[in-house]
């Protein structure tokens, strides 16, 4: 995880396209400039970054389901709950499931666990847009490679 | 069983917090009711679930953008309900 670059997800643990579920891991760094301000003497992951982590986990699920033909863009966050703090050094396990695939949009449910305990959950809505240009498509391919996106999902 | 319009009007009222009695078959979802594209996704989601269909929003949007259709054809509620009835009928025919 590189908070400053919004690289929230480290590894795809389990992607089940048929069941429309994903599990990913995200190792919270022990040190980051983010923690210098949030908060001095009591560093913890900002809630918005927990939501971003759930959105990125959902995004990889959608990329898999859509075979990288569309780019999911976060559009709405509902019922987001931060149920417990996430601290530097914590290993987050993030689960997401596709609850509805509409025409040009999709909805997911996601949750974050640390040590088996739920720390946050949310319902998320995404618009599904064509990749706006080759640069972004190429960037996402590199990101997918970095997190171990199973290539057979994209080109079986 | 309530009509398609009654079900859609109830969905819109509950989803967008719009008084039910202000929603009529001639209401334009965007121009009259002020529903924006993001709120319409919630409405589409509720309609998809309730009627067991998939509103082809991308196709409709493309047709409007290409000048092949008007927003009235899809977003005036009586027309939207007619499209829903067509999709439900098509689903029933293919089942």
From TrEMBL, chain A:
Gene Ontology molecular function, alphabetical: lyase activity
UniProt entry keywords in alphabetical sequence: Lyase
Organism superkingdom: Bacteria
Pfam families tied to this protein: FabA
Classification via PANTHER family: 3-HYDROXYACYL-[ACYL-CARRIER-PROTEIN] DEHYDRATASE (PTHR30272:SF1)
Stated name of the protein: 3-hydroxyacyl-ACP dehydratase
Species per Swiss-Prot/TrEMBL record: Bradyrhizobium nitroreducens
UniProtKB/TrEMBL annotation, chain B:
Pathway the protein takes part in: Glycolipid biosynthesis; KDO(2)-lipid A biosynthesis
GO cellular component: cytosol; membrane
Keyword Lipid metabolism: yes
Keywords of this entry: Fatty acid biosynthesis, Fatty acid metabolism, Lipid biosynthesis, Lipid metabolism, Phosphopantetheine, Phosphoprotein
Annotated ranges, domain Carrier: 2-88
Protein's GO biological process: lipid A biosynthetic process
Any one GO molecular function term: acyl binding
Record-given protein name: Acyl carrier protein AcpXL
Organism: Bradyrhizobium manausense
Higher taxonomy: Bacteria, Pseudomonadati, Pseudomonadota, Alphaproteobacteria, Hyphomicrobiales
